[in-house]
Structure formats: C-alpha cells, structure tokens
Amino acid sequence: MTDLIEALRTPVADEGTGPVTIGMAVSRVDGRDKVTGQARYAAEHSAEALLYGVVVSGTITKGRIASIDAGKALAVPGVIEVITHENRPRLRSFDLFYKDMTAPGGSPFRPLYDDKIHSSGQPVALVVAETFEAARYAASLVEIAYETEAHETCLLDHVERSHKPSRLKAGYTPPPEPKGFADEVWDKALVRMEGEYYSGVEHHNPLEMFASTVVRGADGHLTIYDKTQSSQNSRWYVSHVFGLSKNKVTVRNPYVGGAFGSGLRPQYQLALAVMAALKLERSVRVVLTRQQMFSFGHRPETIQRVRLGARPDGTLTAIIHEALAETSRNEDYVEVVVNWSGQLYACEHIRLGYKLVALDRFSPIDMRAPGAAHGVHALEVAMDELSYELKMDPLALRLKNYADLDPTEGLPYSTKELRACYEQGAQRFGWDQRPGEVRSMREGHELIGWGMATGMWDAMQMFARASAVLHADGNLVVSSAATDIGTGTYTAMCIIAADAMGMPLERVRFQLGDSTLPVAPIEGGSSHVATVGSAVQGVCEKLQKSLFKLARKMPDSPFAKARFEDAEFAGGALRLRAQPALAVPLGAILAFDGAGRLEEKYMMLPNVLKQQNYMRATHSAVFVEVRVDEAFGTVRVTRVVSAIAAGRIINAKAARSQIIGGVVWGIGQALHEETQSDDRIGRFMNHNLGEYHVSVNADIHDIDVVFVQEDDRIVSRLGAKGVGEIGQVGVAAAVCNAIYHATGRRVRSTPMTPDKVMAP
C-alpha cells in the first residue's frame, strides 16, 4: 500500500525530447553513431587472424575457362590460397538450394561452381591472403585462358526472340487479361497517339560496396556481417548452398550503406567469403571493388510501346501498353511494368503485354520502384503527348480520366487521395499560371518549361514478428530482424513503440539486423513500416494489456474496477484518462510484480481476406520546372513539387528526406544515369563513378514535398503505407514533359542527354 501511494505521488520525469507521437519530425536515433563513425558496416568488423579475399573477375562474356595458372599468385608472400571451381569446397548441386527468398524463376548463378562463363565480369577465382594488399596484387597475377563463344547482349538486336515469362518471380503479377476491344477501339478513335519509349540500363551505386566478413568461431559457427537487405535471407542462402544447419550460421547487418534493391538477393561475395572460411577454417573478409559493383544485377534495359485513343473531350477510349525487357539466359527476371496502365486511368478498353529477351548478361535485379520507374514513365509521357493532340491542359486530361475504382478489376481503393495530390501540388507549384503553348517562356538564353506527371506504387504488407521487453528501469527494447538501409527503420520503429507506450524516445531501443531476431521480411517494396511497424505496434499493445492486468492487482489500485479503455499510457506511466493525475510509473508496476522485466511477443499476419477486396496503392503528383540551353542541350531542373499520398506518415522528417531522395534519383533517371555497353565485347564500359553519371549537388535545386493527409487502416493497423518508392515514380516523366513544353522537342528515351535534347 505504501509503495503504491509513493508511486502515485512521484512525478513522472519528462526526460529529454519529451513525448513523441506518430507524425512528428524526429531526427534519426542512429544519426550520432553514423556521423561519429561508431556505426560499423559489413567490411568494418574485425576478427582474430582475419584473412582477406580479392575476387578475380572474368574477362570474356560467354564461354568456358580452359585453364587457370595460379602459380605466380601463390608465390606472393602472405598468399594462403587461390580458390577456383577446381578446388572449392563442396557445394550443393540442385537449383533449389541456390534460390534465395526473392529469386525469380530459373537457375540462379552459382559462384565458382564450374568452368562456364555466363556474363562479363563473372567471378572466376578468389585470392586469399594475410593482408588485403597481398591479395590484391596476387589477384592481378592469376593467369586464366578461355574458350570463347558468340554472345548476345544487345536488346534492340534480338527483339524477335522475345518470350512471355514462364517462370514467375514470387510476388510478380502478370498483366491482366485484355479488357474490352482495345485494338479495334484505338483504330477507330477520333484522337490517337502512339509512341515507343526506350530506357537504358541503370546500375545501383550505393556508397557502401558489397562486402561480407565471415567470423569463424572455435566451434565452427559462422557469424557473418553482410551487406544485405535481409539478414535472414542471407542466412537462408548460406545454409542451403553449403548444407549448414541454420544454428551454425548467424548473419548480421546492423548498418547498411544504401541498397535500394541491390541487396535484396545475396551477391556473390557472400558465397565466396563463406567458401574461403570453410576451406581454410579461418575468418575471411571479401569486399567488391566499384568496378565489380557493375558485374551483377541492374535495372533492366526496356523498350515500350504505348497507344492511347480518346474522344475530343479527352475521355480515354483505349489504352494499349506493351513492354519488352531483358533478362539473363538462366533466369526469367520479371517486373510489373505495364500493369500500372490498367490501374491509373478510367478506361473501358485496355490491353497490356509484357515479354522478355534473354541476353548474355547477369540477371537484372530490383532497383528503386522496379517496373514502375519505367512503366509509369512511358504512360505519363504518352498522356502528355495526348494532351497536346487534344489541345488540353495535361492536368485537366488526368482529372478528366480520374479512376474512382480500379479500372481493371473494378475494386475500390483502400484509400486514394490522388485528386488532393493534384490540387495541392498544382497550387503549391502555381500550375494555373502555365501557358499552354510550347516555347512560350524564356529567360536569357534558357527556355523554360513546366511539366507534370502522376506517380503510383503498391501499398504492400507482409508477415512479421516482433518481441518487446520492458525493464524495471523504464527502458523498452523492441526487436525484429528488420533492416535499415538508410531509410530510417530504427527511428520509425522507436517512434511507433514510444507512441504506443507513452514513453520518451530515448527510453526506447529497437534491435534489428540480426538473423536470430524475430522473423521480418526483406526490406523492399516500401513495405517495412506497414509490416514491421504493425508488428511493433501489436507487441506494444500486448505489453499494454499485460501491464494493465498487473496494475489492477496492485493493492488499492485505482485501476481495479477500470476497463482497459479507461486507461492510457503517457509520460512513462499508466494513468486513468478521466484522472490523469493518478499516474503509476511503468517501473513501479514491474517492481510490484517483482519480475524486473516484462516480455511479450507478437506475430503480425496481413488480413488477406479483407485486403484482397481493395486496390492498395500510394499515389503522387509531380510538377517540374526545367530550364534548357538549346545551344548546348543542357537541362536544369530548377523546381520540383512532389505531392504524396502514402497513408499516415510516421516520421515527417525522414519521410520528407525519402521523397527528396526519390526525386533526386528520378532526375538522375531523366538526365544522367545510363550504363553504356559495348556489345562487340558484351561488357559495360562506364563502370565507375567518374563515367557513370549520377546527380550531384549542382544538379539539384528546389524540391518541395507536400504530404496529403491519408490514413489507411486496410493496408496496415498503423494507417501507414510506405514512401520509399513513390518519391521516384513519375519524376522522369515530368522532366520529359517539361522539356517538351520548353523546346517543342519530345525525347522518348532516357536518359535525356544533351545530344537528344538538341536533336531536331
């Protein structure tokens, strides 16, 4: 009784940041560790007697290894071994064992499995030495002879042998069956447009190169620090490929220096590092070079054809969208490219098609907004072209064909605030001041153009688990095997937990990046907040109820006759809503119980039966101003307004940063990024940051982000969707449309480099 009275009299400390609620602008909880160098990445973890592996990359595109002479390399002081397909440790042989959780259909690449060469830059040997310098030098001395075969790496030269995907990637949705009679209606349409759009290869270029540090314990247990978007996916892969019990492998990725799709699948340095650790029974680190970062997955080269038919008043009568994309010889990598054209605008006659061309390249891989970055781009440029055919404002055309139901399936949207995106974005940009004529705005030697486009991305939710432990000192630790690739997962989960428990943010710690933690999906598709965040909220709600039950048992408890709904968690305490002065610190409740800690676990399962009755998506409206110097063909994107509807925003600061990052990447897609291939030798040539152009500070000017209010309880219990992808979708199209408004020149391929902008 005395303890309870003292607890009620003791004020709850308002520490540090004070109360944190969902939607606030919060600085990253991991920010200090990153800027002070305390955060350690995959190649920064040490181990006793650590060995260093350097990959030897193949120099042909297709064929086989005729012979390997490692004599000179082995003679270098400090070199321990040169591992090749001839002396590697045992690997499993069936394709199934090499399939990670996101693998497409087909036969995954197997590093150092045999003598076959499938693509340029393929790893053909691993030199392992006591020092990195010795391994790097020795790698240059390995002599390899090849037998070459004719290769095919040019998509444009092989469109005639395209095929429909026969082995579909998990989660891939093929184009729906045709709706109505799109071809016949297009043929008879009073207003028509037809365009072909080309997108070149883009490569991920995160700051952190792919690396794996394998720490071998005395008992043979492997603790692997890997650059990956899922520690559990990497553990799955290693366990299956090498036939190891999952209890013998732990994968950790507490910090990841950027990925956005490149880390969805385990990359080959992981298998090579494990291979060396098993063969030599030592700890091993393997880090790829920047050039080797261009030797695996990329955003695929794509050709698209769009045809739109309309009435003179702008009503769409037919949409036909067909796409052709590259894949590798051994896997059918697929993306959702054309489906967006059946979802964005109301239309009675729609036909969509998607085919692949197998080339002698490494399998493509997801890159930020995979499929949509290309597919929505083509549709939105086509819509702009149609608006000029109709002599109609581009925004008015989109509003004319606004879809209140999903046009293909007829499903209602879980939430859709796209109309508000149009309205708020246009107002912020000043779209109503836009002159309709091209080449009508100029300042000095630059033509000025205004363009806009729509963006759309899936709002996905997956399966996840979370655990939460409340300690007697008032600290809360929440755990899930989630990943933070720089997107702010640590902070978002801490906000959700702090909001649920009414605790100061500094009292909450979120653990992620460890394969031994509760199950979490791969971080991708803008699904992590809706998925892991819902699990975190769920486990905190279980914790609330357990604390409430304990509080009711306390002697003379004010909660004895209260219902759970009558109580609330605030200021690190449990209190009655009607009498907030009666607040019991959470630590006092645990002290009464005597356990010192309270733990709960939660399994989050999506409500599939409910969700399948809705179209679930995020939306955006992007407005862009460009300035074009015709004499040089240079384009400056001087102003962007991106209006976003992505459900409930968890961290306003991080979400805005995410959208800005997406806009920057969209500008890169529009103007800068393309990997050039010399198809005579089948190799990507500009495989460095000196020649592969990405947007830099001088390229980026004013970016304004508008979050439209939206709360979607169908997608997630939090009301949140996701903002990782939607920030990029539509940006390149808006830039293209602005260039046309400025110059009267339509550029139908990306990137829109000066030579294309200058072309008559």
From TrEMBL:
It comes from the Bacteria. It comes from Massilia violaceinigra. Gene3D superfamilies: Aldehyde oxidase/xanthine dehydrogenase, a/b hammerhead, Aldehyde oxidase/xanthine dehydrogenase, molybdopterin binding domain. One of its GO terms (molecular function) is iron ion binding. This is Aldehyde oxidase. Residues 36-150 form the Aldehyde oxidase/xanthine dehydrogenase a/b hammerhead domain. InterPro entries: Ald_Oxase/Xan_DH_a/b, Ald_Oxase/Xan_DH_a/b_sf, Ald_Oxase/xanthine_DH-like, AldOxase/xan_DH_MoCoBD1, AldOxase/xan_DH_MoCoBD2, AldOxase/xan_DH_Mopterin-bd_sf.
